[in-house]
């Protein structure tokens, strides 16, 4: 017997169909909307200025270790690595929850406008055996609290958690690598900026002197008092001197802008440098070549990251084996039902189920072979990386030694040039040498000082590169938001002037 559809049910069907059509039309109406870059650019500039305004202001001339401290605390690349490291640790904490059982709580309510019931028919006679009856209330509330635990999922979650722990340690090593690079760049930019500050006035004076001599030579050319060929050669030398002075000023002036970017200051920020005294004392090598190579193989972030990658590959092989095993899933739940017809409105249910994806059994040998091939590639990369690290340590060591020798030669050449300039000035006053010779010696003196400062800066950079090639960054500095720049600078100065003089003790090799 067919049950007629009531007008209420027909209205409900029409409304449901109308809502569905409206949802489909709304989905089709979505169009891409480009972002207006103008307000985004303004907002980005406001954020940057607000960030810089929140930083500890410069109190005076900027020293080397204060610049390094500000880079450790405020450099944006450094902050990215620090935040990525913190993100990895949070994901590691999150991975621990995957090993816990799944506990699901649910509740629901259902109601109908008439009674739910039914008749029964005899399969022998085909006659109705019972009158229509119901065993359910019109409105029913149900609640469930179920805990389920899968042994296979637990094992895989444990493997993934161990891999997440290795990824966290890789993030730590990447931060160390970025820290070494930033501090090396800061030292290079600082010493180049020092050279710019020391020689800026002298280069300006040389340029002014060359320009004045050029004008005087042009006047002599106009009068015809000097042979044209000699005068033009003199003008050519003056123009070359002026151009060279301009080029040096331009190159050195960029160092201060680069330093400002490294310590998170805007390019237009005006600041002065604490110019260190020139000294004949140069840093010394911290150890023998073999000791430095072993130190590099022990502390370089790339070597440690490679070790963690090998461990991740080993764990992946264990995970592949676990996926080929059968899964055992158990379930424990507590349920309640408000149906008054039930004899027991609440009950405890338990179940267990074993399942086995047989395709994983056949897939495992191929996956194992692929992971073993990946392991072989990682081992080969490790050998190449070991050679690269050993080479970099040796190259940085040789470069440091050669630059120390070059600095000694440049220092002696600068001393000789100072005496030549003094004699040239006296001779010019006595009209024993020409203005052309004086301009040339003034420029040579300024250039000699630039070379002296550049050689000293290169040596300091090589010293930092020597430690970066060994992966040494054992500053033991916990840079927090409330750690002052002075505290960080004091710790950095202590490290570079005392602790960095010797290599860390190597562990005793086991027989």
Structural overview:
The protein is α+β, with helices and mostly antiparallel strands and 511 residues long. The protein has a single domain (59-108, 143-472), classed as Outer membrane efflux proteins (OEP) (Up-down Bundle). The chain has 11 helices and 6 strands. A 4-stranded antiparallel sheet has the order 1-4-5-6. It has a two-stranded antiparallel sheet with strand order 2-3. The longest helix is centred in the middle third of the chain and has 73 residues, at 151-223. The chain starts with 6 loop residues before the first helix and ends in a 14-residue tail after the last helix.
> Percent of residues in beta strands?
5-15%
Give the CATH topology.
Answer: Outer membrane efflux proteins (OEP)
CATH class: Mainly Alpha
Kindly state the mean pLDDT as a whole number? Answer: 84
The CATH superfamily is known as Outer membrane efflux proteins (OEP)
Total count of domains:
1
Could you name the ranges where pLDDT drops below 50 across 5 or more consecutive residues?
Answer: 1-5
Instruction: State the strand order across the main sheet.
Output: 1-4-5-6
Q: How many H/I helical runs?
A: 11
């Amino acid at each position: 017997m067919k049950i007629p559809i009531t007008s209420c049910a027909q209205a409900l069907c029409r409304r449901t169909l109308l809502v569905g059509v409206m949802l489909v039309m709304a989905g089709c109406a979505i169009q891409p909307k480009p972002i207006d870059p103008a307000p985004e650019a303004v907002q980005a500039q406001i954020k940057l200025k607000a960030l810089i305004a929140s930083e500890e202001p410069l109190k005076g001339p900027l020293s080397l270790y204060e610049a390094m401290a500000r880079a450790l605390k405020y450099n944006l690349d450094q902050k990215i690595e620090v935040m990525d490291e913190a993100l990895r640790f949070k994901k590691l904490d999150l991975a621990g929850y995957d090993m816990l059982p799944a506990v699901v709580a649910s509740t629901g309510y259902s109601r109908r406008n008439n009674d739910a019931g039914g008749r029964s028919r005899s399969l022998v006679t085909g006659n109705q055996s019972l009158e229509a009856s119901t065993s359910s209330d019109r409105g029913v509330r149900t609640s469930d609290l179920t805990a389920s635990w899968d042994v296979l999922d637990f094992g895989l979650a444990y493997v993934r958690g161990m891999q997440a722990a290795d990824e966290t340690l890789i993030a730590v090593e990447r931060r160390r690598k970025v820290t070494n690079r930033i501090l090396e760049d800061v030292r290079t930019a600082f010493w180049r900026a020092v050279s710019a500050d020391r020689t800026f006035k002298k280069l300006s004076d040389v340029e002014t002197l060359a320009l004045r001599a050029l004008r005087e030579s042009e006047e002599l050319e106009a009068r015809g008092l000097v042979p044209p060929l000699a005068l033009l050669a003199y003008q050519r030398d003056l123009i070359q001197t002026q151009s060279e002075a301009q080029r040096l000023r331009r190159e050195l002036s960029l160092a201060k802008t680069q330093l400002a970017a490294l310590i998170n200051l805007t390019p237009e920020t005006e600041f002065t440098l604490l110019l260190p005294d020139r000294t004949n004392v140069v840093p010394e090598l911290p150890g023998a070549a073999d000791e430095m190579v072993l130190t590099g193989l022990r502390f370089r972030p790339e070597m440690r990251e490679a070790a963690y990658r090998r461990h991740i590959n080993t764990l992946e092989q264990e995970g592949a084996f676990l996926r080929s095993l059968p899964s055992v899933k158990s379930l424990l739940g507590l349920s309640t039902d408000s149906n008054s017809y039930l004899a027991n409105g609440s009950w405890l249910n338990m179940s267990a189920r074993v399942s086995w994806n047989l395709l994983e059994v056949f897939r495992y040998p191929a996956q194992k072979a692929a992971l073993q091939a990946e392991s072989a590639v990682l081992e080969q990369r490790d050998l190449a990386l070991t050679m690269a690290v050993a080479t970099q340590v040796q190259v940085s060591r040789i470069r440091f030694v050669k630059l120390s020798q070059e600095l000694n030669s440049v220092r002696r050449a600068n001393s000789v040039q100072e005496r030549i300039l003094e004699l040239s000035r006296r001779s010019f006053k006595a009209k024993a040498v020409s203005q052309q010779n004086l301009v040339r010696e003034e420029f040579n003196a300024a250039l000699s000082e630039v070379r002296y400062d550049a050689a000293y800066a290169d040596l300091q950079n090589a010293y930092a590169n020597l430690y970066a090639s060994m992966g040494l960054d054992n500053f033991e500095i916990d840079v927090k938001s409330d750690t002052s720049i002075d505290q960080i600078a004091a710790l950095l100065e202590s490290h570079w002037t005392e602790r960095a003089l010797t290599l860390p003790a190597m562990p005793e090799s086991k027989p």
